[in-house]
Amino acid sequence: MTVSTHILDAVAGHPAAGVSVALSMLVSDGSWLPVETASTGVDGRLAFAVPTLAGVYRLTFATGPYFAARSVDTFYPEVTITFTVEGDPSGHYHVPLLLSPYAYSTYRGS
After folding, report:
1. pTM of full prediction above 0.90
2. Residue 30 CA: distances (Å) to CA of 8, 25, 26, 27
3. Beta partners for 35?
4. pLDDT per position in the chain (110 positions), as tens?
5. Strands, E assignment, 10-106
């Protein structure tokens, strides 16, 4: 299975480029194992290269540096989204983030 994300800056009205995103997997002892870290491209998109197995994952978005680079105050220095990967090993999980300095929303994309 593969995981991707897409960040839209709802206030600026464009994709959020250059945001660092870490993908981690929950392991049996309750700790988080880093899987991959990369940054969104100019289109705000990021497809992780590492295939994922079934399990619980989280995406951690470094939103503080993104807003600081634009001289915008933010309430959320990072956003973490935890989700479950299951099912068809050839499947794909897309986890978009709609972002503003004082709010965010997410959903399972296609």
Report:
1. yes
2. 31, 10, 6, 6
3. none
4. 899 999 999 999 999 999 999 999 999 999 999 999 999 999 999 999 998 999 999 999 999 999 999 999 999 999 999 999 987 766 899 999 999 999 999 999 98
5. 14-15, 20-26, 32-39, 45-47, 55-61, 79-85, 92-100, 103-106
